[in-house]
Amino acid sequence: MAHSLSPECTPLKHEYDTCFNTWFEGYLEPAIANANTKGHSQSQRIEYSKQKKEEYDRKCGSIWAEYKDCVQKAVTEKGLGGLLSQARQENPLREPPPPDASGSS
Fold it and tell me: b/e map of 41-59 (b: 16 or more CB within 10 Å)?
C-alpha cells in the first residue's frame, strides 16, 4: 500500500484502505453474482445500496473521517491549500450526466 501525504497519516490510510477494500468486496460480490439476473426490482437495488451505505458508515466511516482530518492538517502544514484552490478553480468537478432513463447502458 502507498504512503500518505504525511507519515503520521500513513497508519490511518492503511487502516482505511483495508476497511474499504473489505467492504467493497462485500458490496461487489452480490452485484456480480446477480448481474445476469433480471429478477431484482429498482426498489430492491435501492434498498441494497442503502444497507451497504449504512454498513460502510458503521465500519469505515469514523476511520475515513480521522484519516481525512489528518490529511487536511498535513495539507495546511505543508502550505498546499493555495495550490489545491487553484487546481479546483482551473479544473472544477462537474456533475455526472444523469443515468439513462431507458435503463440501457
Answer: eeeeeeeeeeebeeebeee
